[in-house]
Amino acid sequence: xxxxxxxxxxxxxxxxxxxxxxxxxxxxxxxxxxxxxxxxxxxxxxxxxxxxxxxxxxxxxxxxxxxxxxxxxxxxxxxxxxxxxxxxxxxxxxxxxxxxxxxxxxxxxxxxxxxxxxxxxxxxxxxxxxxxxxxxxxxxxxxxxxxxxxxxxxxxxxxxxxxxxxxxxxxxxxxxxxxxxxxxxxxxxxxxxxxxxxxxxxxxxxxxxxxxxxxxxxxxxxxxxxxxxxxxxxxxxxxxxxxxxxxxxxxxxxxxxxxxxxxxxxxxxxxxxxxxxxxxxxxxxxxxxxxxxxxxxxxxxxxxxxxxx
Length: 309
Prior knowledge:
Number of helices: 13
Radius of gyration: 34 Å
Order of helices and strands: HHHHHHHHHHHHHEE
Strand content: under 5%
Strand order of the largest sheet: 1-2
Low-confidence stretches: 305-309
Shape: elongated
Mean pLDDT: 88
Helix content: 55-70%
């Protein structure tokens, strides 16, 4: 009888979860088994292991024994597990994101993992990923990287980033009311930064319409300077391209005039260089070395090399 990978994994899970994790990793890494069942099981096991290792680490954080660190670099086995979890969430493509999200305990702050999973659900949940990067993780660079990565799927994603900083939705609207995080607050400095850095990706009229009346004049000046500088640069590039096209056009015309001025006399008694028959009144052509050939003979090849004298 054929035993499925799922039943094998479940059996190993009941005996020793650590062995089950090693088995699932080997399926993916060594045997390159990439399907929904295997990938979802691997990620579910990793989340369960991280949840087991989290409470001692959380207690040390609360006591001041440990200091917060970047995800995946936590001390001991927890850091190793979380680093694997983040890696597989990024590289695997067949797992069920909804199922994985349901397995993450709300009391454990795996917000980087949630941000990855929300974006896997599709453009409709990009706002949740942005909210996590902007107001929970508080990493503007990550938020901008996310927008660059998914701009092909949602051409208004930079505008959404701007709105997320300027007028963020509430935790309840985002569905984050069960998380132990502060209510999002507007960050006008970050909003201005997004306008200045990514104005090409945002409709300028929409970006300007969102500016509140209390916006500092210096910030407005930064935005207009960036737009004008870009416009000037584009104008210069277009002028250079126009000059290059004009120069190329003049070169082509000069070559054409040179070729058209090259004339020589062909008489009916002249012979074709391919068939050696007189050209008569037939259609003819000539090679660069001025040898005459019947137009119909050109397809038969050029048996004699061109003269160089």
